[in-house]
Amino acid sequence: MTNKLQVEAIRKGTVIDHIPAGQGVKILDRLHLLDSDVSITVGFNLPSKAQGRKDIIKVTDLKFTEQEANQLALFAQGATINVIDEYSVVDKFNMTVPETLRGAFPCPNSNCITHNEPVSSYFYLREQNDDIRLKCHYCEKSFSKDIVSEL
Ligand SMILES: [Zn+2]
């Protein structure tokens, strides 16, 4: 037990564990966690038996929406989300890349109809080597997750 607590325990909130090392900063940025007034405890480059190194983020008094959790899966393949209440894990799920993603990012193709019509972006996701490719439902162009995540 003492080995496992590399970062201070929280009473209530969400712990994102097993984040691939180096991705923790992106997640903080992407979810705008630093702009909110929630308390955040982070551990970067922690030793991990399974991964070598990992990042971990603990957010007090926050539960992610489904859309946030889906975005997270792009940056943190293999990460786990632990929902904490009274210092115990009450719910736990693995982040998996969703098959489709609606409205999370604008289409990087500036000629795409989604920029001119009142429709949400809609992507089909496919894992490819270390990358995730997102194919736009409307313009049918395919993008790396790295391009989409810069937007
Ligand atoms: Zn498009």
TrEMBL record:
- Which Gene3D superfamilies does the entry link to? Aspartate carbamoyltransferase regulatory subunit, C-terminal domain, Aspartate carbamoyltransferase regulatory subunit, N-terminal domain
| Aspartate carbamoyltransferase regulatory subunit C-terminal domain mapped to chain residues | 102-148
Please list the GO biological process terms of this entry: 'de novo' pyrimidine nucleobase biosynthetic process; pyrimidine nucleotide biosynthetic process
Q: Does the keyword Transport apply?
A: no
Give the top-rank taxon of the lineage listed in the UniProt record for this protein. Bacteria
Q: List, in alphabetical order, the Gene Ontology terms for molecular function in this entry.
A: metal ion binding; transferase activity
- Binding residues annotated for Zn(2+), in chain numbering: C107, C112, C136, C139
One GO CC term of this entry?
aspartate carbamoyltransferase complex
Q: Which UniProt keywords apply?
A: Metal-binding, Pyrimidine biosynthesis, Transferase, Zinc
Report the residue ranges that make up the Aspartate carbamoyltransferase regulatory subunit N-terminal domain in this protein.
5-95
Q: How is the cofactor bound?
A: Binds 1 zinc ion per subunit.
Decide whether keyword Nucleus is in the record.
no
Q: Which cofactors does it use?
A: Zn(2+)
Q: What does this protein do?
A: Involved in allosteric regulation of aspartate carbamoyltransferase.
The entry sums up its family as follows:
Belongs to the PyrI family.
**What do we know about how this protein assembles, alone or with others?**
Contains catalytic and regulatory chains.
| UniProt name for this protein | Aspartate carbamoyltransferase regulatory chain
Per the UniProt entry, what species is this protein from, by scientific name? Endozoicomonas numazuensis
